[in-house]
Amino acid sequence: MLTFTLGQAPTSITCPTRFILDSRIHQFEVLQRFKSRPLSLILVGLTLCAATGWYLFGTPRWLNANPGNKSKPNLVVITLDTTRADRIGAYGATRVETPHLDRLAAEGVLFEQTMTTAPLTLPAHSTMFTGRFPPVHGVRDNGGFFLGADELTLAERLKAAGFATGAVVGAYVLDSKWGLDQGFDSYFDEFDLSKYRAISLGAIQRRGDEVVDRGLEWLEQQASAANVPFFAWLHLYDPHTPYDAPEPFASRYAGRPYDGEIAFTDAQVGRVVSFLEERGQLDNTIIVVVGDHGESLNEHGEASHGFFIYDVALRVPFIIRAPSLGQRGRRVKDVVRTVDLLPTVLDLLGAKTPDEMDGRSLVPLMTGAQSEMGLEAYAEALYPLHHYGWSDLRALRSGRYKLIAAPRPELFDIEQDPHEQTNLFETRRPLGDRMLARLREIEGDFAEREKPQQPAVEMDPDARARLAALGYVGSFTAAVKPDENRTGLADPKDKIGLFNLISEARDLSKDEDQFAKVVGMLERVLAEDPAVIDAYFMLGNLHAKVDRQEEAISYFKKVLALKPNDEMAVVNMANAFRQIGKDEEALVGYRRFLTLDPRNSQVRYEVAQILIDRDDLGEARQMLQEALSLEPKLAAARNALAVVALNEGDLNGAEQEIRRLLSEKPDARLAHYNLALIAERRRDAKTAETEYLKELELHPANFKAAFNLGRLYEATGNHQAQEIALRKSIEANPRFAEGHFFLAKLYLDQGRRFEEAIGLARRGTELRPRPEVAPLGHYVLADLYNRTGRHADSAREAARGRALEQALRAGRRS
Predict the structure, then answer these.
(1) pLDDT by residue (tens digit) across 242-298?
(2) Which of 431, 448, 465 is the last residue in one of the domains?
(3) Cis preceding-peptide flag for 700 (omega within 30 of 0)
(4) Whole-model pTM?
(5) What tens digit of pLDDT does each residue of 412-462 get?
(6) Would you say 313 and 293 are in contact if contact means Cβ atoms under 8 Å apart?
(7) How far apart are CA 51 and CA 751, in angstroms?
(8) In a domain, 661, yes or no
(9) Number of domain units in the chain
(10) Residue-range definition of the domain harbouring residue 768
(11) What is the DSSP-derived secondary structure letter of residue 231?
């Protein structure tokens, strides 16, 4: 029988006083003269400002008062991933139907020029929910960055004010492990990583209808708490690649799949609005819809996003329906930022915005009290630096002008040139230089408040040598700051061809039949630039997916030589070591990964698997308990605790853990499988058969359940059922060597289908079977060859079986 199995592997409102460039330079001069006026005149000005903005001094500050106040409105924030503003009807789109977003704009306020802070999901969302720019909150990229516990999120602020808080996210890049779960009573992520041989952040997602299903379930639960306002955040990831909208949107937008995803996403927004309307909550709920970033769609040569910071990737939809303001169909033309979301929401709720925020309340623009606020918009793209070794990019938008700081800077007049086709930097050099100087001032302010980078890892020399020997590190230095040492780094504009080639390869890599073509494309990238980190990473993942683990490991080592703290390369290399049975090397990698990602529950689970195999049950239990404290719904860890109990001889304790798991997750993978094994230990074959069949009903791909069921039928003499079960095991996993061996042995024992049996046994010996069963394949082959008169072949296979058996015994003695 197989052994017990774990699984697969706040701010006040002021009139504008900051430096407005070029066409608005007169405002700067007027304001400077205003600063020298007598105090009485200043007070007059402030009085006028207050008279036009009732909210400045007259808004009730209930948020800091009694948490049970019935007058509190609810808040729903819907973030649209990878969504361009110009693909929404209210923003002028004519080829995409977005009636629900259009309705919210007609019933609320639409911001025409909203700039995000980063063209990547995690940094952009971290900014929206902290009101701070990326260098200040510290999240600069997807993966490898975590929102610190010292950051105060919107959810934390509202929870402290008595709100119920819930979130549902559509992609692993926003998993709770990255820190955005802070302040949420309920945070639904639950991405099952165990089914992925190699982890790639952007590939792990769920559809928008599932997100809304879960979100409406949570909202329904809040209906009984009449005196408790709620804050719900729903994240819709669908416009992100791959563009694969369900019907009828796929057919309706045939040839325009991105537009189809936008239409599908709009439909999901409509479901939320309808839900609130049907329950009489719509007019007591502030609804915010905002994009995290856009999508280039081949403009400026970029196919997707993350690389450049042109407006196709930075300009996002931003709509607020706030019934209490009485504003319907207002359109704000002034430049605003996603960093302004949090202070705006707090202002709408009557709360004071903390001084440490970078964002500013946009309520003066929403009410028409001000038509301009003179906000400077900052954005950055570190992706070219972190993933390719090229220069990062930073942008500054001030009024109509936008600067992109790069090795070759760019300056655009957005009003005259909204598609950013004409670089004015040289022709308008004084303006460009002033904006560069202003950007440096802003970055200097960021540097004073910037989160410290992850420090170099301290470890003893032996551990350092062990890691280096296995290829897990190239050095242990902290990462280079993005605003240093740019001299000599390539301008991303010069590398867009390579970036797109990698992007194309990434899309093709989803089809294993394209393996050779994708490898060739990535080799072309490396021939032109041998320091492209992502090319090596993708090659490692490609080879891991086709079970060429040794080659995968070699590519992951190259990634780590260039970027020692690349946690995805570390964990994927550890997974590859695990696949080929090098558990000690895998364990070293997993432990290294936990120094980079200390909140990772899945890797703690993987470590526990190895520890259980080594009979180190005490440390395994500790790892599993830590995993469950980080992620209480991690079914595999609960299942593994049952393994620990079983291996300690505690059958009742093992069963108790599994029953607890099934009460929380009735379809938990491997639960019924392990109940079957407990029944076998109790010599209860009938219960074991029932549990194996239940496991296969829920999880037909569980080849181990099919195999063990076959062995059970063998013991009870039901050879017809045995054959069916063994064949199902190798159909579910064509690379399962033991299944091939035992099906071949069944045919041998029955004296039939010898040639098919020979093919099965041969295939099994090619599949890298476990050392303890590898001799069996050769012995079965030897017997089959003998039965068919091929005596020399029989002797050869018997000798191979004996040699493997002797090596196994010698290894055990050593």
Answers:
(1) 899 999 999 999 999 999 999 999 999 999 999 999 999 999 999 999 999 999 999
(2) 448
(3) no
(4) 0.73
(5) 999 999 999 999 999 999 999 999 999 999 999 999 887 665 444 444 445
(6) yes
(7) 98
(8) no
(9) 2
(10) 734-814
(11) E
